[in-house]
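Key idea: predict the complex, not the pieces.
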Amino acid sequence: MQFRNLRKTYVLMVASLLWSGLATVGLQAEEAQLERIEVYPAEVQLTGVREQAQLVVTGHFADGSIQDLTRAATVSTANAEVVTVDGTVAYPQANGDGALNVEAGGKTATVKVVVTNQDQPQPVSFLYDTLAALSKNSCNAGACHGSPSGKGGFRLSLRAFDPKLDELTLIREDFGRRTNSLDPENSLLLLKPLMKVAHGGGRQIRAGDPAYAVIRDWIAEGCKMDTAEAARPVKIEVYPKSGRVLKKPAMQQQLSVWAHFSDGSVRDVTPLAVFSSSDVEVADVDRNGLVEGLKRGEVAVVVRYLEFIESSFITFVEDVENFVWNDPQVNNYIDVAVDDKLKQLKYLPSDLCTDEEFIRRVYLDVIGILPTLEEVTAFAADEDPAKRDKTIDSLLDRSEFSKFWALKWGDLLRLTSGQVTNEGVYKYYRWVERSFRENQPYDEFATELLTATGSTFSNPAANFYRTSKDMNDCVETISQVFLGARLQCAKCHNHPFERWTQDNYYGMAAFFNRVQRANTKRANEMFIYVSQSGEVTQPRTQQQMKPWAPGVGDIEEPNEFDRRIDFANWLTKPDNPYFAKIEVNRIWSQVFGRGIVEPADDFRDTNPPSNAVLLDQLAKDFVENGYDRKKILATILKSRTYQTSYQPNEFNEDDTKYFSHYQPRLLSAEQLLDAICHVTQVAESFGGLPPGTKATHLPAPDLVNNEFLKIFGQPERQTVCACERTNESNLSMAIQFFNGPLIYNKLKNESNSFRKSITAGEDDTQIITRLYNLAVCRNPSETELKASLDHIASKENRVEALEDICWAILNTNEFLFQH
Amino acid sequence: MNKFSLSLCVAALLLPSLNAQDAVSFKADIAPILINNCLACHGPKKAEGGYRVDTFERFLREGDSGAAAITAGNHDESESLRRIKSEDEFERMPLENDPLAAAEIELIEKWVTEGAKYDAEDPKAFLSTIVPAPTHPTPPEVYPLTVPITSVAFSPDGSQVVTGGYHEVVLWNATDGTLVKRIQNVGQRTFALRFSHDGQHLVAAGGAPGKLGEARIFDAASGDLVTVLGTTSDVVLDVQFSPAGDRLAIAGADSTIRIYEFPAGNLVRAISSHSDWIMAVAWDNEGKRLASASRDKTAKLFDVETGELLVTYSGHNNHVKGVAFHPDNQHIYTAGGDKKVHWWKAADAKKVGELAQGGEVYKLEKIGGVITTSSADRTVRQIDAATQKEVRNYGGHADWTLSSAFHESTKRIAGGAFDGAVKIWNTEDGAEVISFVAAPGAK
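Result:
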């Protein structure tokens, strides 16, 4: 009864889409033969009057390819008294056994059907039907009635995370105005989204929608709450599972969603699930779960039913004319994983970069600064075929490596004198720097940091709890840095798009709520310790929370002295699904300018990795090698993938996420300032820091006040978000390079590089060549050299002409960008 | 000559009435079609295509397309009619919906043919205010479910208690809870029930959420409908007789207070000052000022003769749901979502004191010197209006109490709850006199 309207809609939907599916089969038939069809589920159980089953029909072709034939299939019932079918959805009629005959592309399959419980009522569940129906129609979305103050005096909990509140609002608030059990279709809750009564949100539902039927029937049954013993959903399952590859033109895929309940029953909840695509340029998904590929690439189709979230990764491929795989050089497993993806999506990797490009790139990435003239010359002269690997290994042992990477971690740990005092920040910085210098295993580093206690002076790691000022700050910082999850939303409500719930947030908090922070008698010192009592109360449910970690759930018997130890133990277990992945992805993103998951600290279902195999293998390697950060970095740098040219070819121009070619990026603020000093040989002075200190070695941004660094995106380190460091170009940057004081003063400096060269008696060609090598690690081309010499000849003043040339070199993209 | 003109006059007088059954009436035939099918998208909240139909004047005015909406006597130059009749589903009104019924389209066509005449007074009046009072559906013979008791009142002699039902008002014996009488042709829900001072009339105020608000005046003895006042587009939440009994103040979800002469029924004044629903109104002891309680978190005080806003009280910082004057005429009681009764000075809206309630207060009533409040803690409280002291509280309900009433001569208090139960207590000893489910036939 309640699904009659749904069926009508479905028939219409299928009818309108049928032609495209059939056309697809016909087209494919020319290329490969359809061998068999497969139907999911293989057997249908309909265990109540409200049940249905969305069939998904898959065609297997002779060439091994598969296609979704759901829209092309014809389904008929062998026993209409037991089960009927509309399109590809089966509906129960009476208890008994039946069968469905499925035909597509000339192939057939039979699905057994068992129908039970048709003689018993199956009341609408408030929690699992009605609230899901409201979510399906976005009634409780953040922009609508799910906003904290609601809309138009009607407030729902965001994505139904608070059923108690919703019960109150829907049934009781304002004298029960919204529902009318004596005349359900005249309920305001239905009249408004139907636009039978003016609704600010416009028309959101149709009388034929399954969600409409659910809400109407729930009202008709008297707006009943679920009984305490009613079965609860425990997980959802999406068919097809991740990994399906669809080839143009057959880029359609019907999904079906199955909820598993605590009593063991499984229900088709496709009509009440919410679908979204992680990349709408690659594929769209409609409200019925039909995915439509638009171009080659990959998407995660994220499926949400109440608080359950699952995704199905689908790859779309297409033939590219004249594409021939060129079997590029393979240095290690990274290249294999990258190539597999490139081959599948038909992108061709670029050639290797030149030695000049390599040495500049690898110096900037590993130690943050440009190579000296001698290093450039020596590298060029070295004829050892393994010279790139040798350079990588030697750079990782340089002192600048640990300082430069301490700068990166300084951003994440919010090292500022403002937060940990002037005295504290040097100690904390040295602690982070030492960890890189000594190549401390990353699991030890994390454990030392997260379980730190004592004086922030004698144990600088304790500063972690100084910058993470309270329980909430701890949860949000630790989850973002170590779990790649942005948990801020879950503080007040379940995360609207992700699987993190409010319970999870406060469960995590129970590891850290006992951390105490006390000032000591020594100025600027703080003492961090752990108290032996104190519990976390979930603000909505008022429940006392046990420490909770993803995957393992509540920790029943936490460490009686320090619960943080339990967290650190969980975090650094080799099978932790987050810890290693987040760090290798972060390291990857540091040298590629883009994570395999991007943004690098934003891991979630709706933001899948661009190469999951690659990420898994890197994480595995990292764990197996004892969380050795230098080693994993070396492996990455030694791959061909890292060493490809930045210049695209005709088969990879539009690739920005699969690492077919190196993506040039603006030098970071500190790198750029050091590079300018390097070219002009005029050092920058940073207040009280020792002369010659490099910008890439600054312990904290607030120790100096450098306008240039700020303009070029030096973060203030107020948040743990990697996004605080920006390298988006802006007008101020252009002005700095056009006629800013920093560059002007260095060009005018009486003892800068080219003035020294003049004094030393070098000729113009020598000086120009030196400047090019300093700035871009190569000799000038003939054209460049000639243009420079012509310019000097045309000017009366040789020094001013050289200033112009140096200025011009500093303004080239080749200098400004890492490439 | 005289004779001839007289007969013409008679003919002129007679003709319209003779044809009345055939001529299409805008207010009776056309306006309801527009309200039910067009207003949601072409009204004050949303004016799709720059076109509105909330008044007759606007219905005739062209939208963004510039095409004449309605041209008297000309179907081809009536864009609205064309869109309603269109065969193209992307053009046909109402969009993405079933087309209007053939009979409805025929009515509109005929009305245009007949000259698109307006048969109400003010062409700028909202359609909801000009349509003739509808005949409401009959209530269920036997209630399959209970309904929240959103209004309760004693009959003037105290022998009966009256409750709002579903599309009806029900009179019950106040001693044994047996059903006495069902008054039908009432709006979907009733939020206030008041007897006129002479006891001859019963006013039931309410309507259908989001669709209709009105106050229906019935002959108390016969149950016949006498007249309908204060028709608006969303429910009426309160109605109050002036102290002299010659005026009615009606207010509700359209945020406006309307004052009518009673029993004449002519509108004296409409006061629009609140920005959200008005939950309750109260007259001062002389009928000169009106106080109002609103969901906009304020209570306001107005001069009845001028409609002027005198003071605004914002002390609740929450929905205000009930209001009453102090017997001294200088102070005002209000109560609401902050679970408190406040009293404050009418002169300057300065708070004087407050009294804690156990839960959100849904209504505050004052009859004689007795204030009663009904709240979410399932309790009715009796407060002495002169001393602000809680005299007694009456528990025992199993659900929120939404409504209450006091009867002076029998000294009884009635309380209606969300679950459909009504209880009557004796105020002298606080004993429960009777408890019953106020839904005919329901168990």
